Each structure stands twice: as C-alpha cells, then as structure tokens.
Amino acid sequence: MAYSQTNSKGQQYYLHQKDVTLKGGRQQRIYFFARDVRDGAVEALPDGYTAVENARTGLLVLKKVAK
User: Could you tell me the residue ranges of all domains in the chain?
Assistant: First the structure.
C-alpha cells in the first residue's frame, strides 16, 4: 500500500518516486505527491524526510529533517 496523507482540506495524497536523468547525464531520484496511486508509489517516507503542507495551496511536499 502506498504512503498516503490527508491535507487540511480533506484531500488524500499518495507519495511516489521516480528516477530522472538530468541534462548533464546525472541520475537523480525525485519524490512527489499525487492524488491517485501510480507506478512508482512508495510505501513509507524516505529516511531523513518529513511531509509538510503548503499553507496556501494545501499541496504536500517532502522536507529534509534538520539534524
């Protein structure tokens, strides 16, 4: 089951990951929230990150936890 979180507006979002290739050829993993479950759904938050909500839009984003 994909990691999900409900924002303050009552909308449920699911966490996903995707490996992308940057212009210089370097590989990077990105994380994003979507309102439906797609390929690349993640079952738990990655270590060192927390989910926070944008107060204006209600969109969830990942933020690194301060050490």
Answer: 4-64
